[in-house]
Design a protein that fits this description.
Elements lengths: L2 E7 L3 E8 L4 E8 L6 H17 L7 E6 L3 E2 L4 E2 L10 E2 H10 L4 E5 H12 L8 E6 L3 E7 L2 E2 L30 H5 L1 H10 L8 H9 L3 H25 L3 E5 L7 H14 L3 H4 L2 E4 L6 H16 L1
Parallel strand pairs: 1-4, 4-8, 9-12, 12-13
Antiparallel strand pairs: 1-2, 2-3, 5-6, 6-7, 9-10, 10-11
Helix pairs in contact: 3-10, 5-7, 6-7, 7-8
The structure holds zinc ion.
Length: 306
């Protein structure tokens, strides 16, 4: 069974690992993303992380997969992640190729597309041909598999579901638009809104989720607002695309019912037609290392479609 080197670059964490073709991990490492430093410093962090993974195992690898926050010039892999200001038009794929891939095949895609492919191949999306894989974390992203195929779109950037408009006159978003789902439902926005409502606990999504489960009113209302934006967007997308399944992963989604209950309530309220109502919304199954598996799934998807 061949081994793939997977790299996942997100707004909060960097992760890299060696992945077998059945999705299992041989070795992995993670560290925080320093999103506001220099472009080169962040690249050195990434390279050092990969060096650490490779030093921890004797396995060689046959290909390299990369998942990175969007948008990006694709398939060239020049990335400008909304939540990583250090990189604007950064040639990530070329850097990884020169240092780690050499003559091996390399594939890159949006990190949420990668996660959708991993959930489709190994997780909650097994057995469906029409799904959205969604990430609700530092940012909000997604990837579509329709008629059994990954959807790239005109420029390779299909799936930026975080920038669906949820409040048409809403607050400005980091993307340049306003009222986006991401602006309302990203982790930092949920925490900031809870603080406005009087939350005095630790300012992390995890602490806020614990507060909501304990009955804290500000925490509950903050998750309710975010969940509502996500649920309304899912009802729209399920109507447009006739989805069978929406799989949601990422740190905020790991909060459980305090997040999923308002998502499903808003979806139920806005989904009208029978085929829309039949769309199921479920948590991701692959956990916090799904980004690494996702990067490997991008490589496997390229292999199977070429
Ligand atoms: Zn936006």
């Amino acid at each position: 069974m061949s081994v793939i080197l997977g790299l996942d670059v997100g707004g909060t964490k960097l992760a890299a690992g060696l992945v077998r073709e059945d999705g299992s991990l041989i070795a992995h490492e993670m560290r925080p993303t320093i999103a506001h430093g220099s472009a080169q410093a962040l690249w050195e962090d990434v390279a050092d992380l990969i060096d650490t993974v490779l030093a921890s195992s004797n396995e060689d690898y046959s290909a390299v997969g990369v998942g990175c926050g969007g948008p990006m010039l694709w398939p060239q892999g020049r990335v400008s992640p909304v939540n990583i200001p250090a990189w604007r038009d950064f040639p990530l794929k070329e850097h990884v190729r020169e240092r780690f891939a050499e003559t091996r095949p390399i594939a890159i895609h949006n990190d949420a597309v990668a996660l959708a492919l991993a959930e489709h191949r190994w997780g909650a999306g097994r057995g469906t041909d029409n799904m959205l894989g969604m990430v609700v974390s530092t940012g909000v992203g997604g990837g579509f598999i329709l008629n059994g195929r990954r959807i790239d779109g005109h420029s390779g950037n299909a799936g930026h579901v975080g920038h669906i408009v949820a409040e048409h006159d809403g607050p400005e978003c980091n993307c340049g638009g306003r009222g986006c789902v991401e602006r309302i439902a990203r982790g930092p926005s949920i925490v900031a809104y809870a603080v406005e409502l009087g939350w005095t606990g630790e300012q992390t999504g995890r602490a806020l989720a614990a507060g909501a489960r304990m009955g804290d009113e500000a925490a509950i209302r903050a998750f309710a607002r975010a969940g509502r934006a996500v649920g309304v967007a899912i009802a729209s997308m399920a109507s447009a695309l006739d989805l069978e399944l929406v799989v949601i992963g990422g740190g905020i989604a790991q909060s459980g019912d305090v997040f999923f209950a308002p998502v499903r309530a808003a979806f139920d309220e806005h989904a009208g037609m029978t085929f829309v109502r039949e769309c199921r919304i479920v948590p991701a199954q692959l956990g916090y290392l799904a980004g690494i598996s996702g990067a490997a799934a991008v490589v496997m998807d390229e292999r199977s479609s070429s």
